[in-house]
Amino acid sequence: MSTLTLNIRRAGKADAGDIAAIHDAAWWNAYSGMIPPRALTRMIQRRGAAWWRSAIDRQTVILLLEIQGKSVGYATIGRNRVKTLPFDGEVYELYLAPEYQGIGAGSHLFLAAMGELKRRGLAGAVVWVLADNDPAIRFYQNAGGRQVAEGRETFDDRDLRKIAFAWG
User: Structural domain of residue 61, as residue ranges?
Assistant: First the structure.
């Protein structure tokens, strides 16, 4: 019987290519058919390895999830960007390569992200999800999130509703 080795650590510049690949696959998987194709293509193309290296240079907190030594997911975290919500922290992004979704790895990454926000003294956290993204909504509801706000995001000419889930 073998056991899986799961590791979560802060990403470094050498991880930029892996993060870009995870981002591309996860976004195509999550948003195809939801976000207009041209807008989605533009969003994915601008987040290549150089973009992620620059984010790491700017001290963006990126947690990298590795299984058996392979990079399979990432989360970005920081201060809540919506000042009208009474939560200090925000999980900006949490994505896994599609083949690693549904096996519990995302829960480990989410808990690590929440723990890092708390370690940084940020009380409570929020995450935004497109309202049409049923798998993400189930994930955050199962993680104990409660819906606290709604907003809208426009992609080309399509106006999509988004939902904020919060903890704390």
Answer: 6-167
